[in-house]
């Protein structure tokens, strides 16, 4: 079984990325062949600074490793280092209808957010994501809920291509966690926790203890005092309960019982403690890795070499079927 997934190097990796994706990658690498990518070519579809991007790519690599991706088990690399991604993206663009791209939720949201910079790359973004996935003959794509639509499109494109040219691609399936597939923003629990909503919306994997405490204590909650899971009526506290449950391993039911009759403040103080303790090993590992730049670069180079072999082999089949020889 081949597993593939990726993250954009657009800033700090937050607990939404962790609970929705990375945590499950760490489990999957124990039993499957895993390929994890840092998708820098996706990150340039919104305004960015080249120097900052370079730093973010490195920081994202460190985040993967600090959160438990094992380079002995998984292939880890940077997307732009393998030219087959852009080549396949172009070829699949001739198979994908424009209408399918225009209805993508992420495109609609991003083009509203970056009105002055709606470039063709932003529209074609899901084709590049499809190329990422299909190049590696991927069976499973573990992602958060927001990426479901993109993985469905990858499946459709794979099917269309195979029908028209003959079978080259595996049709990938998404894998979404039952709980934690959509962690909400701390400062606005009606919106998804996201890098683009700014640091107040998220807790980064590497936030220092006092930052974590401050963010949790000021997180938006709901009217009333009860610690009760009800995403419709109490989106703020329900989100915090989800986070608490996933980091502590205690069920939401048990937490509701434990905090019965106690106020939001008590609950938040306890959640801050859980987060500070759970994220401590990540902070420690990151500090170690920051001092070992060459080691991290070597992991990425090795990953590129291994991934390149898989990507090149798929491309031989694609070119042949499409008559490009
Ligand atoms: P990105 O960088 O936005 O997010 C990386 C992963 O984190 C998940 N995620 C969340 N999960 C739960 N709650 C949240 N608030 C939350 N925010 C983010 C995302 O669902 C994702 O799994 N287009 C992709 C990157 C990509 C990719 C790929 C993914 C490019 N090529 C191929 C899989 C396969 C993206 O923007 O993810």
What distance lies between the first and last C-alpha atoms, to the nearest angstrom?
30 Å
Largest sheet descriptor? 3 strands, parallel
Helix content: 55-70%
**Annotation, overall tally of beta strands:** 5
- Residue-averaged pLDDT: 97
| Unique ligands | tryptophanyl-5'AMP
Q: Going across the biggest sheet, name each strand in turn.
A: 1-2-3
Molecular shape: globular
- Overall SS class: mainly alpha
Instruction: Give me the strand/helix succession.
Output: EHEHHEHHHHEHEHHHHH
Using only C-alpha atoms, the radius of gyration works out to 21 Å
Q: Proportion of β residues?
A: 5-15%
Counting copies of identical and different chains, the oligomeric state is: single chain
Q: Give the uncertain stretches in residue-range form.
A: none
Helix tally equals 13
Features:
mainly alpha; 325 residues; 3-stranded parallel beta sheet; 13 helices; globular; two-stranded parallel sheet; binds tryptophanyl-5'AMP
Structure in words:
The structure is a single chain. The chain is mainly alpha-helical and 325 residues long. It is built from 13 helices and 5 strands. The strands form 2 sheets. It has a 3-stranded parallel beta sheet. A two-stranded parallel sheet has the order 4-5. α3 packs across α12. It is globular, with a radius of gyration of 21 Å. The two termini are 30 Å apart. The model has no long low-confidence stretch (mean pLDDT 97). Bound molecules: tryptophanyl-5'AMP. Tryptophanyl-5'AMP binds next to β1, α1 and α7.
